[in-house]
Design goal:
2 helices; 11-stranded antiparallel beta sheet; alpha+beta
Length: about 190
């Protein structure tokens, strides 16, 4: 039997992902009350989506004025598009425009059931992903590259349906876990 030495960075990534997801589960306990107010037909703060439609569906643009300082050079533009493609599946397309106007596109078609699907397009950061929706305004995305955890992203939609927040958990080159927060605004 061959002994394989554990990878400390992989262990830290798994721990960071588990911690982020556990924190999300605790935060969800307050979601029900906000959900009843924000999405009630009698509410004045009605979300822009049709009744029964997910608040994620549509297109979102990254607010570059609120980028985390530790991120590094900002892209020129980042958009996320979420669409319902039928049969219980969604398609998410991400476009990242660099300062030189080159565009990287990555997309996935998936069910929000936690099962892995292959990424399409640019594979610089990921080649597969799994998605889960533990609450109507929460989407968890786990990204893998070469069969190793790459990062975990948690997306939340504001009660008014106009803002999306991304919490991205990963580890740095030294193996220290971190979470960066990105802010998006609805563009359609």
């Amino acid at each position: 039997m061959t002994y394989t030495r554990p990878d400390p960075q992989a262990a830290i990534r798994h721990l960071a992902a588990a911690t982020l997801i556990a924190g999300l589960a605790l935060a969800q306990s307050g979601y029900a009350a906000a959900h009843d107010v924000a999405f009630s037909p009698r509410s004045e703060r009605m979300a822009p989506q049709a009744a029964g439609q997910s608040p994620f569906l549509g297109e979102w643009e990254l607010d570059l004025t609120r980028m985390p300082a530790a991120y590094g050079p900002s892209p020129k533009r980042v958009t996320f598009a979420f669409e319902d493609v039928g049969s219980g599946q969604w398609r998410t397309t991400i476009e990242i425009t660099a300062p030189n106007d080159s565009v990287r596109r990555v997309a996935s078609t998936y069910r929000r059931d936690g099962k892995a699907v292959q990424a399409e397009g640019d594979r610089g950061e990921t080649d597969s992903a799994a998605f889960s929706a533990p609450a109507p305004n929460v989407l968890v995305m786990s990204l893998a590259k070469d069969k190793e955890l790459a990062s975990v992203r948690v997306y939340t939609i504001s009660a008014d349906g106009k803002a999306m927040t991304e919490s991205a958990a990963d580890v740095d080159g030294e193996g220290a876990p971190f979470v960066r927060t990105f802010h998006f605004k609805r563009i359609r």
